[in-house]
Amino acid sequence: MKVYPGKIFRRQSGQTGQAIHGVKFPNTAIENLQMFDKFRQLADESTGIPSYSHGATGVQSTTRTASGMSMLMGAAALSIKTVIKNIDDYLLKPLGEALFHWNMQFNDDAPNVKGDLEVKAQGTSSLMQKEVRSQRLITFMQTASNPALAPFVKWHTCLKEIAKSLDIDPDQLINDPEKAAIYAQIMGMVNGNQNNTASARGQNQMATTGQVPVGASATDLSGAGGGNIGTGGIPMPGEAGFSASAQEPTGSE
Question: How far apart, in whole angstroms, are the C-alpha atoms of residue 156 and residue 183?
Answer without folding.
Answer: 14
